[in-house]
Amino acid sequence: MRTVQVLAIAMVLVAIVTFFTGYYVSPPKTITTTHTVTQLQTVVQTVTQAITPSTLTVTQTIVKEVSEHEVKYPITIVDSAGRTVTIEKEPQRVVVIASTQAMVLSALGAGGKIVGASDTVTNNPVLMSILQKQGAGEVINIGSFSSPSLEAILSANPDLVIFYASFYRNVYDSIASKLPPNVKVVYFDCYIARTMFDEIYKLGLIFNRVDRALKLISKWTSRLIYITSKAMEIRPSDKAKTFFETYTDLATAGPGSGWYLVLALAGGINVFGDVTQPYPKVSPEAVIERNPDVIIKVVSSTRYDPCRMNSTKPLDETYNTIISRPGWSTISAVKNSRVYVYTTAYLDGPGYVIQTALVAKLLYPDVFKDVDIQQWIYEWLKDIGLENPEQICKLPWAYPPTPGK
Q1: Quick one: angle between helices 258-265 and 40-51, nearest 10?
Q2: Which one of 43, 192, 253, 278 counts the least CB within 10 Å of its CB?
Q3: pTM for the full predicted model
Q4: Counted domains in the chain
């Protein structure tokens, strides 16, 4: 029997604050194990300072027994919905609610265990090829992530189901209550910075992939440290006032959304930082009045996927639609050609760090001229198991393309 070690992770769980910036981020603070990751404490300090000078933190220590390479079951974890879940053995048949969880599992080498997923996965041949290379057989389409089919989930015969933690909780709770007792349910977003690294570690525990999880955490937190530390050096007077538009026209990024943090960590000033909802719709006149220096619009992979399409036309069209909105020609961002559109295709999980770097580079191209966004994307695609992404994904992720590399 291998020697059992104690793996202690001190997590800084940073709370939502309802005034001013309202939201904080917290990757794991320290990891004490044979796989020491020395810079995780730094990223907490860096990210916290990047958003606000004041902090509300709660420190919680989670202790698990693991061997150097093997988890000792049963294990008990607390998911991102605050639920305590005991996993008796390594799951073999998993249903995931979206591509976010599928990509993290693939990065952990557990993508082959997925037997059911929403259409964001099953309708994407690139993701399906990755899962199949990791050993997945038939992956049942369970419907959309907002209204999955209970019958389809049951037909996949899962032993674990992974739902989002932050959205559609009533829908997921209703489905979870109807699943057989032997089917475990965990709630992990896998795309929000305050919980993402914690979720990667816990999925590493659940799937007996602790080594892979720690390597991912080490690699991508070091990248996040680099971006946020450089963003912190930008003088307040030089920070770009930014309107960030989400998938829905004129819906912006407020507290509780992943993009709210992306913009904050990248050093931008959110012109709608005073909103209280995650994705509030604003009026065209309100954007004109707040006169942003930069406008950033995101589109989903269904609108534009650099790995499955042969033209940037969808980005071009979206760009032209924005700059042609009535009255917007008076906005500084439009007048100075500082309107950008980018796709979030494959940029979930640690890909969130790439989104932060991409936004930082769009805002401050001179400061981040050494960051090669396309290369970072290729590295992440290789992490999730895509072979030769340079040959498959030749189109840019942003329009106009990011300056420099």
Answers
A1: 90
A2: 278
A3: 0.83
A4: 2
